[in-house]
Amino acid sequence: MVGFWDGYVWPGVVILAQILLIVVPLLVAVAYLTYAERKVIGAIHLRKGPNVVGPLGLLQPIADGLKLLVKETILPARANIGVFVLAPIITFTLSFIAWAVIPFDEGWVLADINVGVLYLFAVSSLGVYGVLMAGWASNSRYAFLGALRSAAQMVSYEVSIGFVIVTVLICAGSLNLSEIVMAQKDLWFFIPLFPMFVIFLISALAETNRSPFDLPEDESALVAGYFVEYSSMLFALFYLGEYAAMILMSGMTVILFLGGWLPPFDIAPFTWVPGIIWFGLKIALVLFVFLWARATFPRYRYDQLMRLGWKVFLPFSLFWVAVTAGAVVAFDWYPS
What we know:
Mean pLDDT: 85
Shape: globular
Low-confidence stretches: none
Number of helices: 12
Helix content: 55-70%
Largest sheet: none
Strand content: under 5%
Oligomer: single chain
């Protein structure tokens, strides 16, 4: 009995506790990212943003969550109910399971696998299924057109993201995310790979359907896009999944280009700060760029979106892969 407890039950309890330590703060961060977005956009537009519910409006995300929780779930009469309900669950789940391989600090990772980058790329690629299922199962032309737009958009920009990741892997010499961070101990990759950093950041906006690439949710043409028929908690799952995906893409940007948990300068005042704090601050900085872009840029036309992905980002990222590989070979510089 003792062997069963030590061999099966206790390791399961530890893993469950580790999962909760990741998921619960992430849910809180997603809730308050909606608050931060409305505050940042309000400040940029010279208005206040949420300021009524609680001190400084800090209870607004809780009020929004309770409102969505108690609303009636409306299921369209002609919808495929099983797929209709499953779609937001898939979108929400995929946004969270990717965090299994994200290192928050040295040794602070749930699954330190050697192909962490491939795992992240695979999980982020699966996100399109939830969107397509929602658009098809709703039996609405607006939802279906939004789903088709989203599928084409996500597939188009994943190609560029893949080439960007390849340049990072060439410089780091590893697919393990912790080793990629440690390879940036002397120089963060955003400096030698700055064009790839910019392409990755813009592609992350398109991958998460964020403004100015929010064509799948184009309210002027598609009412609300692929989740036009959703309400209450099913809509909330899409909403939470989108913001969790934003945090995930920001975390990937920090790990691949901004040194992960490493401090900006390896001197005393900066090294005193725990690595997880630096990781969180860098994610917040990248998320601010997401919010800033929404408040600043007008929405792209769909042909402009496709042209940017296929005629600009794809050839340039492919060219930069060749340049990076050539520089590594020419200067005999290989990661240790």
